[in-house]
Structure formats: structure tokens, C-alpha cells
Amino acid sequence: MRDAGRAGLRVERASLNPLLALRGAAGVAVILALTLWWGTPGLAVSSAFGAFASGIATFQRSFHPRPALALAAALGLSVSAFLGYVLAGNLPAFLCLLALWAFGAGMAWTFGAVPGVVGAFTVAMMLVVVTLPATVWEAAQHASLIALGGVVQAGLIVIFPVRRWGAQRDALADALAGVADFARQLREEPTLPFDPEPLMWARTAARLTPGQARRRPAQLSGYRTLAERFRAVLAALADPLGGVPDYGPERERVRDLLRAAGTVLDAVARAVRRGETPTVPASALEVLRVPADGPVLPPGPARKAALRLIALTEEAVDAAGGPLEVTDRGGEHWVRDRLGPGVVRVAARAVRRELRLDSPVFRHALRLAAVIVAGGLLGQALPSEHGYWIALTIVTVLRPDFTDTVGRGAARLVGTVVGVATAGLVLALSHPGVYLAAGWSLLSVFLLYLLIRTGFTVVSACAGAYVVFLLGIAGQDWAQTVPERIELTLVGGLLALVSYALFPSWETPRLRVRLGDWLAAVATYAATVLTDYADPNPNPKTEQRARQALLDVRAARMEWEQTTDRAAAEPVRARGLSRRAAADAHDSLITAGRAASLLESQLAHHAGSFALSEHSGESAMAHDPGAEQFARVLLAAAEPAAQAVREGRTPDWTEVQESLGEWRDNTELPDSIALRVAELVTDSFVEVATATRGRSSPAPE
Predict the structure, then answer these.
(1) Which of these, 84, 61, 57, 243, lies nearest to 154 by C-alpha position?
(2) Fewer Cβ neighbours under 10 Å: the N or C end of the chain?
(3) d(CA 641, CA 83)
(4) For the Integral membrane bound transporter domain, which residue ranges apply (predicted)?
(5) How many helices (H) and strands (E) would you count in the chain?
(6) How far apart are CA 525 and CA 590, in angstroms?
């Protein structure tokens, strides 16, 4: 909670974008001014809520078009508000609707944080705005104006674009900068593991519909594939398995190449982020050239990696003058399936996978539905006319995981209380009319949009103040009831925290499952690379197979790391898996993945057209047939070993060790990099078995 409190108050200037905040606030101002001029204060409040929540959706981290996010959010808000209006007079029916809607909002987290946040807003809309209209016709008017607020936000995004393709540019630039930072760190730590998250985000950003692909700037096409190739070559160049000693002129040459590569990648990242032409320093390009007297690196994997790095740099420089036309066809098909006619089928399949009691999303949906109904009943039982504020606070605080609910939720609760109190004090001192209250609300929403990517406590304070000022437009005397609102906020926050304690969804019991998934992915990747190494006739399918296996490793590793981060803050411990054991297993799998990646960088299809360069001085790669037999044994042992880890048993790598011994005894290439990689991978998996040593029988869930 201490860390969450500090993070909640942190305001990063680099994250502030006044133009985006001004555009979002302008959307609220336009719809608010129109409804105040044409209709009543109650209608103005509804429309402003719609514009506000639609604007919130467009600020979430998403690569979907911002106008589409605004319209989708407005549609959900409008429907929820109208249904709430219709059933508001019938308490049992309204509570049933509220429970069903809250359950759906909780299940929306299946598709990510953006749908989850928007779903929570639809529940909040149902709670707040139903107090305003009196008839079904008025309810329809309010619902229509809520939708109109989203339409206005979407229209402003189209008319006044700010940084077109900005999210995609940032994701790609972060990936390039991450690889550049990796190059610099390898100078001091040659076996440093690569953090795959920036490249995973860049891959997500590259998933486009056919229409988006036609409009995408040329600069955003190709650099991600280039970053992937840089990553593999940099790791191969720095790794001691490449044959370069830790000290001496060869290592200094490697350090110079790594520094120059980082400089080039940084220049490209800055250019992509700003939409400019990359300007690469001449000093870096001078280092990334083959010396006239030949390379100082000895023959072997390191020299091959250095030559490939030089060729990659030439490609990066050429891309500065013209786009690299390398597309991600799989990404386009992925998005087409989800945005086309198959979207319902894909969504239903995803929800169906989460409909199990051990799913954090499903438990969150059940918990949210139950506590929302309890909060609604408690609000009705209290003498206050504003008891709905309890349920509104519950929606704000409750999240699927423990860290977000207890740590950040408490910080959000504090921020909401501060915002409500501050806004109440302002109202008490200024006694505003309708238009002055509208002005205060616009100031609050501008600050909220401006600070939305920074501290969530500050953002919650702005949101609380916005609601106070906005409902003040409708004539509610907030200046006299602020203490009551604060009390109801605290009650709602307490209910949310208690509900999580009574029905938690811990990440800690999932540690073994995530570790088993990562182990299976690394073993499959290593077996795939070894199989490709043994194939004397590689083809495009070979490269695609290795690439997909690598992506599976990255996804499994990210899930493991996210689970360990959340589990570290939970007041429970994994049965049979201590933190030390988890850390040892993590390090071992990182080593195995790095070794397999090193071998992948030596494959013929990774060399590309520059592998047979005139100045390479290298012969074609010698293939070792023993690698294929070892890969088959490793692949067969991967899933049983992973299942043993999931069930709390000790993985058995005996057959893999025996196969490695046969390969070592019969090979004609005892110094081949494939054999050394296989030895390193096997040792790493044995270390995982030692770290996760468990019972002979499966562990209970």
C-alpha cells in the first residue's frame, strides 16, 4: 500500500499531453453547452457523463481506433442508463438488472483492461443517472444524449487528430529503444536476458485490419522485424559461447559494436516516435563497418554475429531513406477475425474459457455482482437520499487482482474522498449557479484527462470532484451533504475490501501452472531450433516455426512474471514453491531460453542474404545430425515435465540426459555450438527440477 500510495501521487511530466486533454475536455464542453442551451440541467448532466466516460475510454492503452473506442463506450453507457431508468422504480427488478450488468462488466476483463474499465463505467452510469429522469420518455432522452456525448468525442478525434498513429509509434519506438538499451547493457553483462515486453507490445500494435494497413505510415512497416533480428544478433555477439574471451582486443571490439548498435537503434527509435527521418551519427556507422585489414574477431559464431550486425545496420540506414516493406500477415488475419463476422464467436470462446471457479476474471465478476447488490440494498436501507454512492465507490475500487484492489484501490479511495471534500469546499465557498458549476466540472475533467496517465490517486481526486460539480449542475446541494458523501464513500470502499477478503482470487496458487507453461514453451523452442539446425535444407516454414515458438516463450514468460509480481504482494504463499525456488527456476529458464536464442541466431535462414558476404570468410554452417534425435527426445519430454511442475512433482529429465550423452559420444563435431547449447539447456532444466523438487503425488489446488 505504501508503494501504491507513492505511485498514485507521482506525476510524470513526460506523460502529460495538454492537447489531448484539451480535446477531451472540449468534447465534454460542447455537449454540456448544447444541452444547457436546449434542454434542462438534468439532461446536461447525462450528456456530460456520456462524453466524459467516452473520453476516458479513448485514453486507455489500446491500439484500436480512438473514435471506435468512444462510440463503443457511448453505446454501452447509453444502453445501461436506459435499462436502469426503466427499472429504477421496481427495486427487485432493478437489483437483478444491476447484478446481471455488474457480472457482465466483471467478465469484460476477459478482453483486457480497456473493456473492463468501460464496463465498470456502464455500471456507474446505471447507478448515478437513474436518479435524474422521471418517465420512460425522459429516460430515452437521457440515454440518447449519453450516446451523443460519445459521438461528439469521436467527431472531435476525427476532425482534430493529435499525433496520428501515436500509440503505434510509441509501441514501436519503445521496442527499438528496448533493444538499444539491451545492446548497451550487454557491454557489461554479456549473458543478460532480454526483456520481451516492448517487442510483445509492438507486435500487438502491428495487428491491423486491411483498411488500417492501407493507411499505415510507411515508417511503421518493417522496423519491428528489424528490431527482432537485431535482438538475436546482439545476444549472439556478446555471449561467451560465441568464442570471445572476457578480456582483450576481441572483447573491446564487441563492446564497441554493441555501443554503436545501441546508438543507431536509439536514433531510429527517436525518428519513429516523432515521425521524422532517422539521423544516424557518423561515428557509430564508422564502427559498424568491416575494417580494411579484416575483422579482429576470431572465426566462429561471434564473427558471424558481427558481420550480420553490420549488415543489419546497413538495412536500418537504407530504411531511413525508404520504407522496409515487411508485413506481419499473421497479425492482419488475427485482427480481421476479431473485427469481422467472427467477432462474436471469438468473444464467446474467450468468455467460455474463463467460466471456471479458479479464474480470477470469473471470481471478480461473481464478487462484483454480489457486493454491488449488497451495496445497493444497504444504500436503500440508509436514511440518506444518496445511498447509491456506496455502490458507485465499489465499482471504482474493486478489481480482479489483489494488488489493484487493496493497494491501488485504497489509493483510489483516498483520492476520491479528497476530491469530494475539495469540491464540496469549493461549492460551499463559491455558491455557484449552473454555469459556474459547469465551469468547475470542465476544469476538473481537463485535469483528469491531463493527468490520466500518471498517478491514479490524483486522477481519482479529479474524478470525484468532477462528479460533485456535475451533479451540482442538476441542483443538488452538495455543499451541505459532503460529509455524508465521504461517509458513504468510505462504506463502499470498506465493502469492496471485505468482499475481496471473503472471496479472493489469489495469483499465488497459479505460480506452478505458469512455471509449467513457461517450461514447456522453452523446451519446445529449444527443440524447434535444434531441429532446424539439423535440417540441411531450411525453408520459409522453418523460420516461421522457430519464430512462433519464440513468441510462445515470450508470452509464457510474461504471464509468469506478471503472476510472480502479483503474488509477491499477496498474504499467502505457494505450497511447495518458495520464493527462492521460484527465483532459481526463473533464472534457469532464462538461461535455457538465451541459449536456444543464441543457436537460432546462427541458423542459415537468420543469416539472410548477407550470410555469404564476400568479406565474411566463413564457410557454410555444418549441420550435426545428432541434434535432430536429441530434439525429438526433448520435445517428447517437455509436456510431461511441465505437467509434473504444475502438479507439484519433480520433473524427470533422465531420457534427455541419456540422449545428450549419446550425442556427445557419437558426434564428429564435439565443439559445435549446437552441442554446447544442448548441454546448457539440459543443465538448466535439471536445475528447474531441483528448484521445484516436490512430492511424488500431485499437490492439491
Answers:
(1) 57
(2) C
(3) 52
(4) 376-498
(5) 30, 0
(6) 12
Residues 6+ apart with CB under 8 A from 314: none
Q: What are the grid coordinates assigned to 482, written together?
A: 459532503
Q: Which amino acid is at 205?
A: A
- The C-alpha R_g of the chain, in whole angstroms, comes to 29
Amino acid at 377: L
SS3 content of the chain, % helix, strand, coil (to 5): 75, 0, 25
Write a three-state SS string for 393-425: HHHHHCCCCHHHHHHHHHHHHHHHHHHHHHHHH
CA distance 449 to 99: 30
What pLDDT score was predicted for residue 598?
A: 85
State pLDDT tens for residues 242-278.
Answer: 778 788 888 888 899 999 999 989 988 888 888 887 7
C-alpha count within 13 angstroms, C-beta hemisphere, residue 75: 8
Cell of 205: 500494435
Residues 6 or more apart whose Cβ sits within 8 Å of residue 433: none
DSSP string covering 215-226: HS-GGGSSHHHH
| 453-497 pLDDT, tens digit each | 777 788 888 988 888 888 788 766 655 567 777 888 889 889 988
What domains are there in the chain, each with its CATH number? 18-161+356-502 (no CATH), 166-331 (no CATH), 508-691 (1.20.58)
pLDDT band per the 50, 70, 90 thresholds, residue 577: confident
Q: Would residue 248 be called left, alpha or beta, if left means φ above 0 and alpha means ψ between -120 and 50 degrees?
A: left
pTM (two decimals): 0.80
- The answer on pLDDT for 175 being more than 60 is yes
CA distance 549 to 551: 5
